[in-house]
Specification:
Blueprint: H1 21-26, E1 46-47, E2 83-84, E3 104-105, H2 120-126, E4 158-160, H3 163-167, E5 170-174, E6 178-183, E7 188-192, E8 197-199, E9 211-214, E10 217-221, E11 228-234, E12 241-244, E13 250-253, E14 260-269, E15 272-281, H4 286-292
Parallel strand pairs: 1-2, 2-3
Antiparallel strand pairs: 4-15, 5-10, 5-12, 6-7, 6-11, 7-8, 9-10, 11-14, 12-13, 14-15
């Protein structure tokens, strides 16, 4: 059998060879079987994004051109559970979570998604407090200063010092015969100009009296004024009570007359000092005046040194 007498292969259309004219006429021509259409299987499949190409032409030649690509496959049915690595086309609305498709898409997101709403715990944590405790000084009503009043009496019973006057130096009270004090920790005590004492003494961090007598004058250390809650100054002599602060400002409280006396009351509110003249019967004793203002002397326990 000659080299060109073999029977041509019609089942391989991409093979071509040159055939002598005599042999080409003798060789029978067999039609190539029609290519079966490619259809996507209904079962679960793995798609890598490249679709099947169309069948080659039935002619018996070798073609080096790129075969035309088939149209894009339709979207998988809702009942499929295949793994798709292709990038899905963006949709106008997000697909509902209750659809039948359970495919795993590894491509980019099809569309923009709304940011999740903050949880109620985060909203509660970041929300500002609904009510804030106001400063004590914001609740104070307007009052005259020590530079506006020269004497406290029934017509002008009180003055209020500003923050600078309430915190610098020493407040000096002259003409007082007895004093009483109460600190912020509810420790109370009292003393007289004669040296008598009751209750618990008040000491500052420098071991000095917060309120006390120095010779004939009563002193209040304003450097530690925030540790003082209130104080009383009682004058029974013929001279009026006098008040003086570091900048030289002064005022007076009338002396007892016609069976009436004035007690100078000092209150500390938010670091500011208020001075009030309180009228009382002159016959009241010091203990009765303490009780009238709600003072109850606390018992003082002296510290004992450790025995070796």
């Amino acid at each position: 059998m000659g080299p060109n007498s073999s029977r041509p292969r019609t089942d391989l259309p991409y093979l071509r060879r040159r055939i002598k004219p005599g042999a080409a006429a003798a060789a029978p021509v067999v039609a190539a079987p029609a290519a079966a259409p490619v259809s996507a299987p209904a079962s679960a499949s793995l798609s890598l994004g490249r679709t099947a190409t169309a069948a080659a032409p039935s002619g018996g030649g070798l073609s080096l051109s790129r075969p035309p690509s088939a149209p894009a496959a339709s979207s998988a049915p809702s009942g499929s559970a295949g793994l798709s690595l292709s990038r899905p086309a963006p949709t106008a609305t997000a697909q509902s979570s209750g659809s039948g498709s359970s495919s795993l898409v590894l491509g980019g997101r099809g569309g923009s998604q709304a940011a999740p709403a903050p949880s109620s715990h985060q909203a509660t944590r970041t929300a500002p407090p609904s009510h804030a405790k106001p400063s004590p000084t914001r609740l104070l009503f307007a009052a005259p200063g020590i530079d506006d009043v020269r004497q406290l009496d029934e017509h002008t019973p009180m003055v209020r010092l500003n923050a600078r006057q309430s915190a610098i130096g020493t407040l000096l009270v002259t003409g007082a015969g007895a004093i009483a004090w109460e600190t912020m920790d509810k420790t109370t005590g009292g003393a007289t100009v004669r040296g008598d004492a009751a209750g618990t003494p008040s000491r500052t961090a420098g071991n000095r009296p917060l309120v006390g007598f120095q010779e004939q004058d009563a002193l209040v250390s304003l450097r530690h004024v925030r540790t003082l809650r209130r104080a009383l100054f009682m004058g029974r002599g013929p001279a009026p009570l006098g008040v003086r602060i570091f900048d030289g400002a002064t005022l007076t409280v009338p002396a007892p007359s016609n069976g009436q006396m004035f007690v100078l009351s000092l209150l500390q509110i938010g670091g500011l000092l208020e001075l009030r003249a309180e009228p009382l019967p002159e016959r009241m004793t010091d203990q009765e005046i303490w009780a009238e203002f709600g003072f109850t002397m606390t018992h003082h326990v002296a510290a004992q040194r450790e025995r070796g």
